[in-house]
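Hi R.,

Quick one: here's the V-type proton ATPase subunit E sequence you asked about.
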Amino acid sequence: MALSDADVQKQIHHMMAFIEQEANEKAEEIDARAEEEFTIEKGRLVQQNRLKIIEFYERKEKQVELQKKIGASNLLNKSRLEVLKAQESHIKNVLHEAQQKLNIISQDKAAYSKLLEDLLCQGLCQLLEPHLMVRCRRVDQALVEQAIVRALDSYKYHSGRDAKLEIDTANWLPAEICGGIELVTRGNRIKISNTLEARLEMLSQQLLPEIRAILFGSNPNRKFDN
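And here's the predicted structure, written out as tokens:
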């Protein structure tokens, strides 16, 4: 039996209502999925940027800590250098005072004469030359002449050799030095300086670690004693 126009219209309305409902449900499903994906992506981006911010500030914190350590190290090194500079200045003052007291040695004629003998003998043993020139202060000439005789005897006793020592009256040592002698080979090829100032300088270099320890105590951080 053929459907009437009213029945046809009614079925069309039912179909349209069904299609509309399906479309609405599909749209809601798409919206829900889109919202879910948006939430997930937003969370991912937030977490990603959060990690970047944390990493940035951790890097900044490390840089600050490094700068603090560098600053502290620079201050420590500066302080150490200032201490070392003050110590070296004090050592120089002590050695200068010692040099000022060298004049006392030459005032004791007996002790000074024995010292001249030892300095001459030591120079002879170092050079082992048959003929040497002796330079001294003009004021010490007489004492040196006496010391030469004893020094040659001592040299022969220790080395079994003879030698000749001659005072160089053309080249006196400066009057302002504290004393001692120089030994020079012919032609001035080799010279040994045994002045009191030279001996003090040599001894101060050798005893520098002990001088430091006496003045400032032992340094646990020092690896080499020089």
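Residues 5-100 form the longest helix (96 residues).

Cheers,
M.
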